[in-house]
Amino acid sequence: MIVINLDVMMAKRKMSLNELSDRVGITLANLSILKNNKARAIRFSTLNAICKALNCTVGDIIEYVPSEDEDGMTIEED
C-alpha cells in the first residue's frame, strides 16, 4: 500500500496546510485529501511543487508499505 507522509514533512518544516496551499497553488481540499491518504492519484507536477515547497524528496512524501493478510503473510496489491 502507498502511504503519503505529507503531514510528517509539514510538521518537520513547521508549515501549515494553508501555507503549503499558497506556495504550491493547490486547494486546501485537495491537499487535505493527499494528507489523509484518500488520494487515488497525484500529478508529477503537483508532487514536484510539494517537494520544492517542503525542500524534500519524493521518498520523504511517498512510502510503500507492504500489506499483510489475516495470517500475517505479506501480499501484493494491484
Write the layout of secondary structure elements.
Blueprint: E1 2-4, H1 6-12, H2 17-24, H3 28-35, H4 44-54, H5 58-61, E2 62-64, E3 67-68, E4 74-75
Antiparallel strand pairs: 1-2, 3-4
SSE class: alpha+beta
**CATH class bucket:** Mainly Alpha
Strand line-up in the sheet with most strands: 1-2
State the fourth-level CATH superfamily: lambda repressor-like DNA-binding domains
Number of domains: 1
Q: Span between N and C termini?
A: 9 Å
Helix-strand pattern: EHHHHHEEE
Largest β-sheet summary: 2 strands, antiparallel
- Counted beta strands: 4
- CATH fold description: 434 Repressor (Amino-terminal Domain)
Total of DSSP H or I helical runs spanning 4+ residues: 5
Helix content: 40-55%
Which radius of gyration do the C-alpha atoms yield?
14 Å
The stretches of 5 or more residues where confidence is low (pLDDT under 50) are: none
- Percent strand equals 5-15%
General shape: globular
Looking at the overall shape, the CATH architecture is: Orthogonal Bundle
Report mean pLDDT, rounded to a whole number.
90
Structure description:
This protein is an alpha+beta fold. The chain has a single domain (2-75), classed as Orthogonal Bundle (434 Repressor (Amino-terminal Domain)), CATH 1.10.260.40. Helices cover 49% and strands 13% of the residues. The protein contains five helices and four strands. β3 (67-68) and β4 form a beta hairpin. The model has no long low-confidence stretch (mean pLDDT 90).
